[in-house]
Amino acid sequence: MTILPDEDVGMDVLADHMDPDAAACPACGGAVALDDDLVVGEILYCEHCGAELELISIDPPRLELFEEEEK
Amino acid sequence: MPSGASAGGAVGIWRFAERFERAVPVRARISLGEGDTPCQEHVALAREVGLERLWLKREDLNPTGSHKDRGAAFQVSARVADMLASGHAGGTLVISSSGNAAVAAAAYVARTPFHLVAFVAPGTPDARVARILEAGADVIVSEQAISLCDAYARSHALANLRPSTDPLAVFGFMSLGWELLEAGTSADSVFAFASSGTSLVAIGRAVEEGLDGSSKGGRTGAWPFGLHVVQGTYAHPIAGRFDPRPVPAGEGAGDGEGKTGAHGARKTRRLGEAVRLVTRSGGSGWIVTDDEAEDGRRRLSAAGIDVSIESGAALAAAQRAAAEGRVKRAIVVLTGASRREEGRMSVDGPTGRLLRAETLDDLDPALGSAP
Predict the structure, then answer these.
(1) Are B124 and B13 in contact (CB under 8 A)?
(2) What is the pLDDT of residues A31-58, one digit of tens each?
(3) Partner B contacted by A42 (CB < 8 A)
(4) Between the CA of residue B20 and those of B103, B113, B141, B206, what are the distances in Å?
(5) Residue B246 to residues B68, B286, B294: CA-CA distances in angstroms?
(6) Which residues of chain B fall short of a pLDDT of 70?
(7) Which residues of B touch A68 (CB under 8 A)?
(8) Is beta strand B138-141 parallel, antiparallel or unpaired with respect to B159-160?
(9) Given CB atoms, is B145 within the 8 Å cutoff of chain A?
(10) Are strands B138-141 and B114-120 parallel, antiparallel or unpaired?
(11) Nearest to B140 by CA among B196, B187, B170, B95
């Protein structure tokens, strides 16, 4: 699984050592584990910084900060 | 003991008290008679919609007229338990909901020392707002109801009862799943309308608890029925993962049209778990148009059952699934009553305040130091 670290977070070290089934948290750059049965749109939590993240795509894996929708 | 607390705690959802993962002591349990709703077989209606057999789970008969009472009963009781344990006297609880959840929360909170502040979106039906106010809760109307409620809760360290985010919301709804299992039907499918999917996830967890061979469940083997999620054209974050039928032109497709499930969330934190549960159960998802939902509601009304359009949607989904040859014997969960059939939950005491706010700066002067 390809990793797409957010270029703004400066997480080269983490990205270099990222598990193939993980993606970079766009908030802190930490590795967020991605299970096999996730669905696009699923909300995940970064265990490093607690950010709520939305899975935007699976292949390639891409996470964005979850934005609450006002109806 | 709060007003409405059940002596012995063995009624409504509290019949399952020993199965909830979070213990709530008897003296903190509140019951207005929610749960233990009938699961009625309807022979003529089954024939009409193309099913071999049809059962209606009458959640519309809950005290405030919706299955949300189950969740609220547990959520509020758990906060009463926390209050009793801490020795503090009440405080403020908040909820953002433009649907039945706020009505249910207001009714249950009214029986406790707590005060509720409910955040609703503009366009929330007046009758619904009136019911919340009559129960003594304050109502904040805001374009940013969800985020303002979250911000207010965080800034004052208050519990937020919003079902899609409160971890305690699932427990009360699990009683619905256990009752469906207890009903002893030969149903091959359960159809339920979902907004955020909290109650759907709860039903799924309740069933799978038994499948896992848990000592609490005792049921082993395969899923006893397919779990079918029903949503409207306004918002269908879960059903949209299953239903390949294009949403008809003018019926929304995610742009806010469609009155079935209006105000429902288009993103939900329950998405992943809901999709996995529906998939494992062998069920599916169904996006129902307003016309189909109204037709379902009319059929139910003709059978003497006045329910919400979302309940009509659940019947319409079962009808479509039967026509496609995918189900034969269905339980349709009637999640809510029609507006005019909803119970009145007025309590003695002053009504709440109706306020408009868009920022915390608007709120604090209006509500005062609520906590």
Answers:
(1) no
(2) 999 998 999 999 999 999 999 999 999 8
(3) yes
(4) 24, 24, 34, 10
(5) 30, 11, 19
(6) 1-9, 212-221, 249-258, 263, 340-349, 369-371
(7) 146-147, 150, 267
(8) unpaired
(9) yes
(10) parallel
(11) B95
In the sheet with B114-120, reading across from the earlier edge strand, the strands are B159-160, B91-96, B114-120, B138-141, B354-356
Contacts of A66 in chain B (CB under 8 A): 267
Can you tell me the distance from the alpha carbon of B96 to that of B145, in angstroms, rounded to the nearest whole number?
Answer: 6
DSSP assignment letter at B33: S
**Residue burial B159-172, b: 16+ Cβ < 10 Å; e: rest:** bbbbbbbbebbbbb
Alpha-carbon distance B200 to B176, whole Å?
Answer: 10
**Is the CB of residue B109 less than 8 Å from the CB of residue B2?**
no
Strand arrangement of the beta sheet that strand B226-232 belongs to: B39-41, B53-57, B329-333, B189-193, B226-232, B285-288
d(CA B84, CA B293): 44
The rounded distance, in Å, linking the Cα atoms of B56 and B337 is 13
**Residue A12: its pLDDT value, please?**
42
Interface membership of A38 toward B (CB under 8 Å): yes
